[in-house]
Every structure is written in C-alpha cells, then in structure tokens.
Amino acid sequence: MLSYERMIKRRVIASRRPDTTRRRILEGAGRLFAAEGYHAVGFRDMAQAAGVSLRMPHHYFGSKRKLFAECVRYALVDRINLAALFTEPPPAGDRRRAKAAVARSIRTCFHAIHPRSGRPSWSGDLIGRALTENLDESLAALQDGLKPARDWFYPALRILRPDMNPQAYVLWYVSLWAQISFYVTARPAILARLGRKNYSRAFLETAADHLVHVMLKQLED
Questions:
Q1: 8 A C-beta contact, residue 211 and residue 177
Q2: What is the DSSP secondary-structure string of the chain?
Q3: Rounded distance between C-alpha atoms, residue 114 and residue 65, angstroms
C-alpha cells in the first residue's frame, strides 16, 4: 500500500498532467475490468488502482459505461495497436495468395488477443469482456478499434468469395472475433481441465491453426 504522503504527492503530480492522469485511469480501470468484469468494478476501485482521487475517473469520463468503452478503445488503439498489424494492403487478384494472406491475418488477430508467450494480457482479456458484456458504448468502441482489421479483411475475402455480400461478411467477421474471445471467457475452465496456470505456446498455436481452418472453411462454396 502507498503511504499517505506518497499518495498525496502522486495526486498533486497527476493533477498537473491531465494526459498522464487520463492514461493512468485507463490503465488501472482497464486491468480491473479485464480481471473482474464490468459489474464487479466501482469508481473507488478504479481510483485506488490508478492512484488518483475518487472524483477523477468521473471527472475525466463521466460515467462507468463511458470509462469502460474508453478502456476498450485504449486497449485496441494504444496497447494492442491493431492498426500497425494491418498496414500492408490485401493481395489483389490472386486467389492462392489471398487465401494465404487471410490465414496469416486470422492468426494475427488471434495472437493480438492471445500472445504466443501464453501469459494473458489485460488488453486482450478486456476485448473478450467487451464482446460478452453487451454494452452499447463499449461495442461501439470495439467496432472503432477493430476497423483496421475489418477494412483489410473485406476486400481480401471478396477475392476468395466474389459473391460475398456485406451481410455475409459481417457474419463471418463477427464469428472470427467471437471464437477468438472464447479462449478468454473459457480460459479458467480450459486451464483447469489441462491442469495449467496459463495457456502454453503449443496450445495457442494449435488453437490458431484450428481457427484458421474453421474460418477458411466458411468461405468455401
């Protein structure tokens, strides 16, 4: 626990640096939301985790729903930096190259949430929480944060399935992230069955291979 004097000093410094305070709240609240879920976390918990006064989370974000949404956006944009993983344009015209590129990108999405080290990241776990909490604000933030991947996959999939309409693509894309999030929400049960504390690299590579197989299978005529 921080001493009273250190806590006061951190609060004074934080009050002089709004961007630093905002980031600290996002980091502290994001970790709590990822570990315990939206409903189990209160403003007092978030303020204590961030080392700021009780009024600061509300001052910067207005409500818990908005703060949860901003944590989701922060996780995808700043922590995971999904945009940096999709800078290369999708291949044009060649079906074989497009299929290989789609397979690589499915793995990229999977390992953005489930690092190959097997150690869970709070940012990845928070994305899984956002998909299951079903709050309008966080789902909107999720869509914004996932836009780089969404914009990459659609033209690539049209090479594999020229007849794919936007509705079919949305179903495919939602299915992709739902299956990725499964390994977040089901982690305790899976690890208990395996007798492990964390996923192993081998397990995650196998899970990624299975996901690639399933998602490509859905694109077959």
A1: no
A2: ---HHHHHHHHHHHHH-HHHHHHHHHHHHHHHHHHH-STT--HHHHHHHHTS-THHHHHHHSSHHHHHHHHHHHIIIIIS-GGGGG-SPPP-S-HHHHHHHHHHHHHHHHHHHS-TTS---HHHHHHHHHHHH--HHHHHHHHHHTHHHHHHHHHHHHHH-TT--HHHHHHHHHHHHHHHHHHHHTHHHHHHHHT-SS--HHHHHHHHHHHHHHHHHTT--
A3: 25
Band of the pLDDT at 134, cuts 50, 70, 90? confident
Give the lowest-confidence range in 34-48, 84-98, 179-193, 194-208.
84-98
Q: Could you tell me the pTM of the whole model?
A: 0.86
64-74 burial code (b ≥16 CB/10 A, e <16): bebbbbbbbbb
**Domains in the chain and their CATH numbers?**
4-62 (1.10.10.60), 79-217 (1.10.357)
Tokens of 82: 């999904």
Mean pLDDT score across all residues of the chain:
90
Q: Which of 75, 64, 12 is nearest to 38 (CA)?
A: 64
Q: What percent of the chain has pLDDT over 90?
A: 80
If we measure between CA atoms, which residue out of 164, 124, 172, 166 comes closest to residue 145?
Answer: 124
pLDDT in tens, 26-49: 999 999 999 999 999 999 999 999
Closest by alpha carbon to 103, among 115, 91, 114? 91
